[in-house]
Amino acid sequence: MSDAELRNPNAVPVRALGIRIRRVNGDFLIGQEDRALLLTDVAGLIFASLDGRRSVSDVAHLVALEYAVDAEEALHDVREFLDDLTDKGIVAWRDAP
Known about the structure:
InterPro entries: PQQD, PqqD_sf. It comes from Streptomyces bullii. By secondary structure, the chain is of the alpha+beta class. It is built from 4 helices and 5 strands, in the order H-E-E-E-E-H-H-H-E. The strands form 2 sheets. It has a 3-stranded antiparallel β-sheet with strand order 2-3-4. It has a single domain, classed as Arc Repressor Mutant, subunit A (Orthogonal Bundle). Strand 2 and strand 3 form a beta hairpin. It is 42% helix and 25% strand. It is globular, with a radius of gyration of 13 Å. Helix 3 crosses helix 4. The model has no long low-confidence stretch (mean pLDDT 91). The longest helix has 17 residues.
């Protein structure tokens, strides 16, 4: 997916195939090859929301509601976090319905 598509709030992020996911005390431990990443708090909420149906905008809305933050700020932060997970091969993208 191109950078422009990543910025599209209607794009749908999904968990990439081939990653290992464990729940540890309510957090997500993500394993990929020889790397591990622990996702807590808001990062865990975002990752848990990647169900293949929710758009970036939908996920940002959940974050804004849960953490009582401005919707635009939530959208910016969710996009940035998903871009990072995409770069790490943890998130893949599919076209919006």
